[in-house]
Amino acid sequence: MGLLQLLFSFKGRLNRQGFWAGIGINFAFLFIVVNFFTHSTAFNPIMLFPLGGSLYSILSIAVKRLHDRNRSGKHAFILVVPMICYFIAPLAGETNAWLLGLLMPMLIGTIVFLEWGFFASFPQTNQYGEQGLSLKLK
To answer: Considering the chain, what is the average pLDDT of its residues?
Structure first.
């Protein structure tokens, strides 16, 4: 799987090695952009472009990893739940705010981290393609 297909395509399957390679490439890209190409302001509208591109790339990597686990890409919407919990937390009581704003996002994030990053691939061919591929630089 080539670099552009790894980072920007929603088709196919991606094994654990390819998943971590894609996440690492996105992390390195954002690290370089933030540390070397921006001014030290709290908000810079120019940063929305690299952030949006990286978000799209991470979403495509996650969908391909879900395909490799024999799950639909729709399961990536589980990442919306921690955001909803975080924004609803101030409206809840003191104890419930802690549960909604901190515990639930951490729990869901940990489950997603384990599912996508460490669990083995689905061994047989499935509706999303052959066995999961990794990054191959040509």
So the answer is: 87
